[in-house]
């Protein structure tokens, strides 16, 4: 049974946050990335790979961070995103997203946005917590398909922005959260652009929004 009470905690966080272990290389990278963000530097510069750092570590840090942030963004609108208001996971009439995970849903399946989001966050969380894909121990290499996995995660996280911007933007504006979400989106957009992590065709649903806030 799909029980809403299990999905949402009282503080609006859609999921508990995934944290970096203090003392690890990735924790240091994360702190550096956060410090650059807070310093008011141009976001295009903030996403660039720091000299001497590993690209996979840099991508891992950002994938986890975007997962946390986008989780919170959806958490803020989730109570307004019901099976009645959003019976299909979509971005307007032209874009519809179906869920497939090769496990419970072997074929692309139409689902209400809320259920889609829950499955998506569970799926990403299980990948991030999988030591074979996101190794946390020093000296353990990333798998060969690491960037492919990250591209898939990032392209699915993009769908959360699509749904929130197109279907729940009025709620975001009413909450006074527009600037915060725009900054998060810009950060995400510059990052995926810097390392070509998403196919341009995937970005079409937010083309006008992207031009307005990122160029």
Structural summary, described in words:
The protein is an all-alpha fold and 215 residues long. It is built from nine helices and two strands. It has helices at residues 4-7, 25-38, 43-46, 55-77, 113-128, 146-167, 169-175, 178-194, 207-214; strands at 90-91, 95-96. A hairpin with a 3-residue loop joins strand 1 (90-91) and strand 2 (95-96). Helix 4 (55-77) packs antiparallel against helix 5 (113-128) and helix 4 runs parallel beside helix 6. The relative contact order is 0.14.
Structure summary:
GO terms for molecular function: kinase activity. The chain is an all-alpha fold and 215 residues long. The chain contains nine helices and two strands, in the order H-H-H-H-E-E-H-H-H-H-H.
Global geometry: globular
Uncertain parts: 1-13
Number of strands: 2
What is the residue-averaged pLDDT? 86
* Head-to-tail CA distance between termini: 45 Å
- Computed structural class: mainly alpha
* Count of helical regions: 9
Biggest sheet overview: 2 strands, antiparallel
What is the percent of helical residues?
Answer: 40-55%
Our Rg estimate from Cα atoms comes to 17 Å
Strand order in space, largest sheet? 1-2
Provide the succession of SSEs.
HHHHEEHHHHH
* Strand residue content: under 5%
